Amino acid sequence: MRYLDSRARSADHLRAALPLMTRQRSALHPVSYAVWYEHVSGRNPTLSRELQALTEAGEGLDEAQTWSLYRRHLGELDTGGAQKLSEGFSRVLDTMAASAAQAGDQTARFDSSLSSWVEQLLADPPAQTQVEVLRELLAGTREIRAAMRDLQRRLDSSQGEIGLLREEVQRARSEALIDALTGLANRRAFEQRLNECVVGGAGAAAGAAAEAPCLVLGDIDFFKKVNDSFGHSFGDHVLRAVAQTLKGVAADAALPARVGGEEFALLMPRAALPDAQKLAEAMRQSVAASRIRRGDRLQSIERVTISVGVTQLAVGESANDFFERADRALYASKRSGRNCVTVLAARAA
Ligand SMILES: Nc1nc2c(ncn2[C@@H]2O[C@H](COP(=O)(O)OP(=O)(O)OP(=O)(O)O)[C@@H](O)[C@H]2O)c(=O)[nH]1
């Protein structure tokens, strides 16, 4: 087990890591946490040196760099381990919140006891011989009460800080399933959903009219040319625009996901193959009809098109075989000249 830090120390690392991650615009997910945690813990100087070199130019640490650091320096910690680390952070936050709340309650109780003692003394003056002692006691009490108010203020602000950290961890959890560039489900979320669909649809009847999970895969045509001609950031803009189009086409019928660089999927949990083909055709046409503008220029670029493959889950088939057939259908569309849809039924595969 690699992470044996005490809760107090983990909390310190967490406090140090999150603001750095936010400043470097790092995606908040378990792998990214693991890299930054390792860095702030100071136990991996080689990783820290590389990370500092990468972020020196102020460009932030992108996803590919994060994964590369993770693979090369933390390879033995699998994503399950990283997930546990992120869950551990959550537990640390819970403990910190509970301790701060308890300390706050105790402080408030002691403060109110002091107040009532002072009031009693003032209401019922003691014998002359004790007056000097009591004056000193009262002066000391005032100091203690001021210190307690200060402590209470600091506890309140720690509670606020803990609340913010907790929100960040929550956000990290949901971002682990969302593609940062397009806002669609990412490959991980897609694979989870695909496996659920395959398990749920395992007993589905075969045949074109029967309903079973269907998969539509689309890949932007000649995307390298878009990047080469107009730059990588315009390429990103195109990916976001295609993702928006897919969201509109999918509506409630399918889960839209980004499953690769310029590869997208629409996963239909239950559909007849001809209906999936219709959705695929709608997706192809919508992308081909869209016009993507460059910055403030009014002219649109060459139109963007996608090649599409469609298939339906066969009885007893694995998620892997299902996905691979959709991929074969997609590449048949590429071979047929692109900007078209190919349907590959399980029987014909
Ligand atoms: N801008 C941008 N480009 C990306 C991203 N991910 C992958 N790419 C680029 O996508 C391009 C894919 O190129 P290829 O696989 O050669 O395919 P293609 O040019 O689309 O050609 P066909 O698929 O055969 O039609 C490569 O240039 C990658 O660098 C990304 O997140 N942003």
Automatic annotation (TrEMBL):
Enzyme Commission numbers on file: 2.7.7.65
Reactions it catalyzes: 2 GTP = 3',3'-c-di-GMP + 2 diphosphate
Keywords: Coiled coil, Nucleotidyltransferase, Transferase
Pfam families the record matches: GGDEF
Domain annotation GGDEF: ranges: 211-346
Family annotation (InterPro entries): Diguanylate_Cyclase (IPR050469), GGDEF_dom (IPR000160), Nucleotide_cyclase (IPR029787), Rev_trsase/Diguanyl_cyclase (IPR043128)
Coiled-coil region: 148-175
GO molecular function terms attached to this record: diguanylate cyclase activity
PANTHER family: DIGUANYLATE CYCLASE DGCM-RELATED, REGULATORY COMPONENTS OF SENSORY TRANSDUCTION SYSTEM
Name recorded for this polypeptide: diguanylate cyclase
Species in which this protein is naturally found: Roseateles violae
